Amino acid sequence: MRRENTRDFSQCRKCGARILFMRMKSGKSMPVNPQFVNFRKDGGKDRIVLANGEVTSGTIVADLIEADGYGYVSHFATCEYAQTFRRK
Ligand SMILES: [Zn+2]
User: Fold this and answer.
1) How far is CA 30 from the centre of its chain?
2) What's the 39 CA to ligand 1 centre distance in angstroms?
3) What is the domain extent for residue 74?
4) Separation of 74 CA from ligand 1 center, angstroms?
């Protein structure tokens, strides 16, 4: 029984995707996609959650050579059911 690596993983209740909960600097948990993204620190429109819980703005890039760092994106940014989350 080795479950320690799955501890922080969960599943989106809307779309069923695997998500990871990141502990933010604020103390809140944010669901993010478990895949890393590479991004450029140019103040772009994408919100990137860093491994240390900070949120920064940048542009997600596919090419590692262009990237300044890596992080996670909020699952709500990509979830096809995200609009139902916002209706509160
Ligand atoms: Zn989802």
Assistant:
1) 8
2) 22
3) 4-86
4) 10
